[in-house]
Design goal:
mainly alpha
Length: about 375
């Protein structure tokens, strides 16, 4: 009996120790699993874990962003540090403020606007404004369609994805004017998607999805004919001929994507939207990023830089996380079972001893007789 009681107590001690060791991991895994559909809470949990392991991570990234001449990203990390209560040296704050001020200077903004207008490539807010001005005048979209359409007509390599985005842009531009600017965020978002494609910063999964959507939107034979006869010297007339080759009713998916990208751009800036497009694998990722951007604002770019796609959805294996939770529950069950067995065996031992003592007393009372 002593051996049985000792083994039960040993099992209880071992299970209690195992539960104490497993509980922190199980608690974190359970929280992550419960937050997998909420990108805001999920990113907070993973950020807390990352910063707990390396408190200097934010300052290291600020220095890296300044060295890469990206004051917008450095400022995003400053905002994240303020939100998490991480102290930043005053000298570093002054350097970030100076770099941001220089980037936002009138001369720099004017130069970037002109580059965006002429080349159609957006790298920051100023160049996006220039690119957007070209797209709203239909020149930018017609230019892209004409270039890719000529390649298509001559049998050369054609970026059909860019072709579809530019074609959708004509439809969205028309809606922007009809709604007196109401569709402007969608137009800006579509411009960002198009520029991300040009710069090779569109995620592989998202590129495949956009490509499938673009093929449904454009009547390629009709567009090839319109591109062959069109000219950039008459952009509006050429745009009218190109619109006849566009199935506007099929553009809903791309318009929703552009709307989400536009929301991200409004909250995080052009570079934040481009960073999102680089890691997104589909429109659901972009929609999650839009929810994150609306909650975190300027911190979003720093969060995405630290966590990557993990800021948007659960990238760790759900099975591995569930294993931590199951192991902790198993240890707890073992502890409770061992406590139950110990209690039962102690009770049985007490009853046996009481019975033995009673029998001895009865035997002692009967022996004189």
């Amino acid at each position: 009996m002593r051996w049985r009681i000792g083994s039960a107590m040993t099992g209880a001690a071992m299970c209690a120790t195992a539960f104490a060791l497993l509980w922190p991991h199980a608690r974190d895994a359970g929280a992550v699993l419960s937050a997998q559909d909420d990108p805001v809470r999920l990113s907070d949990l993973q950020l807390d874990s990352a910063l707990r392991g390396n408190p200097a991570l934010v300052i290291e990234n600020i220095e890296a962003a300044l060295a890469a001449h990206d004051p917008d990203l450095a400022n995003s990390f400053v905002g994240l540090a303020a939100a998490k209560g991480i102290p930043i040296p005053d000298e570093t704050l002054r350097r970030v403020a100076g770099a941001v001020g220089e980037e936002n200077s009138t001369g720099h903004m004017a130069g970037r606007f002109f580059v965006g207008l002429v080349t159609g490539n957006a790298e920051d807010g100023a160049s996006l404004s220039g690119t957007l001005a070209g797209d709203l005048s239909v020149f930018g979209d017609v230019r892209d369609i004409m270039r890719e359409g000529k390649h298509l007509a001559m049998g050369e390599d054609t970026d059909r994805l860019l072709l579809g985005l530019a074609a959708t842009g004509l439809v969205v531009t028309a809606a922007t004017f009809v709604s007196v600017g109401g569709a402007a965020p969608v137009r800006a978002g579509l411009t960002l998607v198009k520029d991300a494609r040009k710069a090779g910063r569109l995620g592989e999964g998202l590129s495949r999805w956009v490509g499938r959507s673009a093929r449904e939107i454009v009547d390629m034979p009709a567009l090839e004919k319109a591109a062959a006869t069109g000219t950039l010297s008459r952009p509006r007339q050429t745009a009218g001929a190109i619109k006849a080759a566009i199935r506007a009713e099929k553009a809903g998916g791309l318009v929703r994507l552009a709307k989400d990208v536009g929301r991200i751009g409004e909250k995080t800036g052009t570079r934040g939207a481009l960073d999102t497009l680089r890691i997104a694998e589909g429109p659901k990722d972009v929609a999650r990023a839009a929810r994150l951007a609306e909650a975190k604002g300027g911190q979003t770019r720093a969060i995405i830089r630290l966590l990557g796609r993990g800021a948007l959805l659960l990238t760790a294996g759900a099975f591995n996380l569930a294993t931590w939770v199951f192991s902790a529950l198993l240890a707890l069950f073992g502890f409770l079972s061992s406590i139950k067995a110990t209690t039962e065996r102690l009770t049985l031992s007490w009853l046996q001893r009481s019975k033995t003592r009673r029998l001895r007393r009865q035997s002692a009372a009967a022996s004189p007789a």
